[in-house]
Design brief:
With about 800 residues, this protein is an alpha/beta fold. It has four domains: about 240 residues, Thiamin diphosphate (ThDP)-binding fold, Pyr/PP domains (Rossmann fold), CATH 3.40.50.970; about 80 residues, no CATH class; about 200 residues, Thiamin diphosphate (ThDP)-binding fold, Pyr/PP domains (Rossmann fold); about 130 residues, Rossmann fold, CATH 3.40.50.920. Helix content is about 45%, strand content about 10%. Strands 1-8-9-5-4-2-3 form a seven-stranded parallel beta sheet, with helices on both faces. Helix 17 links the parallel strand 11 and strand 12. Helix 2 packs parallel to helix 12 and helix 12 runs antiparallel to helix 15. The relative contact order is 0.09.
């Protein structure tokens, strides 16, 4: 176990710092501390809704910042404000703008007011949505709140450095890396190391041997729960001893311990740790112990409720800024008067920044409120007082701190009160409301997806072409040819997953590609779905194009949290400041048994808004989607049909070039009596049923939606219902799952209820998972006979004479 304890060690790095450097750090530490103290007061005054702060961690973060270079990356948690200030990627005014939820990307560039305070990120994209030169900037991936959720992405950020270093084909992409010389810094609280994601990420980093430097801020608590309930032996570095490498050149971690109030030791530790990480590509863990948290966990309560008097006294004595002050005085680097002046100036600096941030946030809203009150008073004057409109105006007029919701709420209720009347003031108020709703839609609802030239909707469709003598092959061979062509086209593309490498995945779509393109391009991983996806997220943020495989759709549950909380909302929570065009490849639907026949579509649809969801019926369609996605900058999940790899298809002659647009259903069979809407493996079952229905005189139209996100952007299904007037939605999810989603999209969103002569019906699987065996599949999931009977019942209701009861 490496330590930073000896006087000889600790003096080596700090000796390179001048007095100006030392006092700069001290000043910055106090500016951050006063920002935390002021932030708490702002919450209690009602000017902000919630606060969580980085007090107590100032000195360790100052040391970390001194080891952080241009091109490096951070994946942190919500107490890293001092670090962000120290690397120059956060100003105090921006800090308070985030606390106030200022929905302006210029005022609050990390999240444009969309994330609560303490969630930081740098803007990696230009105004057109293209990557900036990330090798020349200090980069912070956008924070998320779920504890430990930063760790999977951290693996990917560090893994990208390994690829940039070891793959010569990537050396040309100098805007993303300087030959892999970048370190990925991660931060996490001691209690969050209890999360499975932490241990999975640590193990993955040790296996991969990547430049990942993790700092554990150990203040002994997780909110009110002390370390004895959190960590075996109450010491995360102690229980990770087995990861310590045995010597240079050996696999494993370097592990350092250092006290969070010891400025000199911290400077030395971070310098040495970062150098090992950067030059040797060895993962490093720094256990920063004896950290304090002067204001407790957050504004939601006081730590005096659960910390003993002795603990509170110890924390006061070991406050890192107090200890740094003592050291500066002891070593003669500054006088008492100099340090007191710095502390007072820091407090004033924070006050000025706070005032400026509040003014920039509140003044425009106050101006809007003044405008609204004037419009409302005009409306009262023109329409009279009998409608009690004046009762709405007065509260807004005397509200000392209105928010935009107050304005819009009042205007909507006012217009409700004067409905049916005509006046110029009413028209002006309607115009104001229309503009306000549009502006607030941009503030709060925009950038769920990319708006760049590489957005999905901007990828040109290229039709598949087939040679006249094209022969039939297994579906897996179509995918294999597609991946082969794309790997040749773009060296940034790589694939990782369980069994992807040597055997070419369990269904052979990558067969032979590792041998052809090398282990760095087609790579096996351990059984660790969460960090497989995280490895892809981080690499995609750094300009690479990962395909991350989840072997079966059922196992997506291991990764759904990080997909939902991280990549799916990345564009949104940064308002277009960051992107990660990750492709998650998986397979599902029909096979065998409870854990290999998954169709949890409802769960996926609800969790991954911000990603696309492709559900191709065969491997040619899947190839078309991969070709599109690998040219786009948006993330997606592609669910291949488990039972389709051995079915025969033709390979397009332009297998790596043809593209399929997303959100465009395909009509597989024309019909007149009823429309069946489905996707994936159900397409074959529905087409079988359609043949059987034709034998009894029923003509059905079969539509494959192809993608669920986006869904039928041109309303093809509504057009079909306008002719057939009846609809059946069929899939393999549980009742009320994917079928209910499709029905809502068609009947509600497309307003196709207008064309229906019968109740729309849904045909789904049973509420339980399918048992093992062919009979288990037949009696659990929709089959051709189920489709036949459901359609027949719908037609029987309309024409019982023509279609008499079967049973």
């Amino acid at each position: 176990m490496s330590t930073a304890e000896t006087a000889a060690d600790v003096l080596s790095s700090v000796a390179t710092l001048s007095k100006e450097d030392l006092l700069h750090d001290y000043r910055l530490g106090w500016e951050s501390r006063h920002a935390s103290l002021a932030g708490r007061k702002e919450v209690f005054m009602g000017k902000a809704k919630f606060g969580i702060f980085g007090d107590g961690k100032e000195v360790p973060q100052l040391a970390m910042a001194r080891a952080f270079r241009a091109g490096d990356w951070r994946a942190g948690y919500y107490r890293d404000q001092t670090f962000m200030l120290a690397i120059g990627e956060l100003t105090l005014q921006q800090y308070f703008a985030q606390l106030y939820a200022h929905a302006d990307v210029e005022a609050e560039p990390s999240t444009a007011g969309r994330a609560m305070n303490g969630h930081f990120g740098t803007r990696h994209l230009d105004e057109d949505g293209n990557f900036k030169n990330l090798a020349e900037s200090k980069n912070s991936s956008a924070d998320i709140s779920p504890t430990g959720g930063q760790m999977p992405r951290l693996v990917g950020l560090a893994y990208a450095s390994k690829l940039f270093r070891q793959n010569p084909e990537l050396h040309q992409f100098s805007q993303f890396s300087v030959n892999g010389n970048e370190v990925a810094f991660g931060t996490i609280g001691n209690a969050s190391t209890s999360e499975g994601m932490f241990f999975e990420a640590i193990n993955a980093a040790g296996v991969l041997q990547i430049p990942m430097l993790v700092s554990v801020w150990d203040d002994h608590y997780g909110i009110s729960v002390p370390a004895e309930y959190q960590t075996t032996k109450q010491n995360i570095s102690e229980i990770l001893k087995g990861f310590q490498r045995e010597g240079e050149g050996q696999d494993g971690f370097e592990i350092f311990r250092v006290r969070g109030w010891d400025y000199v030791a911290l400077i030395d530790t971070y310098q040495r740790a970062a150098e090992v990480c950067r030059t040797q590509h060895v993962p490093v863990l720094i256990h920063v112990q004896e950290v304090t948290q002067p204001q407790g966990h957050s504004t939601s309560g006081s730590h005096e409720r659960y910390k003993s008097k002795d603990r509170l006294s110890w924390e006061e004595e070991h406050d890192c800024l107090r200890k740094m002050r003592e050291w500066l005085l002891q070593e003669g680097h500054a006088s008492e008067e100099e340090l007191t002046q710095i502390e007072n100036e820091a407090k004033e600096t924070v006050k000025v920044a706070r005032t400026a941030a509040w003014s920039a946030f509140f003044n425009p809203i106050k101006e809007e409120a003044t405008e609204v009150v004037a419009l409302l008073n005009r409306l009262v004057k023109e329409t009279g007082t009998e409608n009690k409109l004046h009762e709405l105006v007065e509260p807004l007029e005397h509200n000392p701190a209105p928010i935009r919701a107050d304005l819009v709420r009042t205007v909507r209720r006012a217009l409700r009160a004067v409905r049916g009347t005509r006046s110029a003031a009413r028209r002006d108020l309607q115009n104001w409301l229309e503009q306000a709703l549009a502006e607030n839609s941009d503030r709060y609802n925009s950038y769920l997806f990319s708006q760049s030239e590489e957005a999905i909707g901007n990828i040109e469709e290229v039709k598949a072409e087939f040679a006249a003598d094209a022969h039939q092959v297994d579906g897996r061979e179509v995918l294999q040819a597609c991946f082969d062509a794309n790997f040749q086209r773009d060296p940034r593309i790589f694939a990782i997953g369980e069994d992807v490498g040597r055997i070419g995945d369990v269904n052979q779509a990558f067969a032979g590609l590792q041998e052809k393109f090398g282990e760095l391009r087609v790579t096996d991983t351990g059984i660790r779905e969460c960090t497989i996806v995280g490895q892809g997220i981080g690499a995609a943020m750094r300009g690479l194009r990962p395909i991350t495989e989840i072997q079966y759709l059922d196992y997506l549950l291991y990764a759904i949290q990080i997909l939902s909380d991280d990549v799916a909302c990345l564009q949104y929570r940064t308002k277009g400041g960051q992107k990660a065009p990750l492709i998650v490849r998986t397979r599902g639907h029909r096979l065998e048994g409870i854990w290999h026949s998954g169709s949890p579509i409802q769960m996926i649809l609800g969790a991954i808004r911000g990603m696309h969801l492709c559900v191709p019926r065969n491997m040619t369609q899947a190839a078309g989607f991969y070709n599109t996605l690998l040219r786009s900058d948006e993330p997606a999940i592609v669910i291949e049909c488990l039972n389709g790899y051995r079915l025969k298809e033709q390979i397009p002659s332009n297998v790596g070039e043809f593209t399929l647009p997303l959100g465009q259903p395909e009509t597989l069979k024309k019909g007149d009596d009823l429309t069946i809407v489905t996707y994936g493996s159900m397409c074959r079952i529905v087409l079988d049923a359609a043949k059987q229905l034709a034998e009894v005189g029923i003509s059905v139209e079969v539509i494959d939606v192809q993608t669920l996100l986006p869904f039928d952007v041109d309303h093809v299904i509504a057009d079909s219902l306008q002719r057939t007037n009846r609809v059946l939605f069929a899939d393999e999810d549980v009742p009320g799952g994917g079928t209910a989603y499709m029905m809502q999209q068609v009947v509600d969103e497309q307003q196709a209820y207008r064309f229906l002569d019968s109740q729309p019906r849904c045909l789904a699987a049973q509420a339980h998972r399918p048992p093992y065996g062919s009979d288990g599949d037949y009696f659990s999931k929709p089959n051709a006979e189920d489709v036949f009977d459901t359609v027949y019942e719908m037609l029987q209701e309309a024409d019982p004479k023509r279609f008499p009861a079967i049973y």
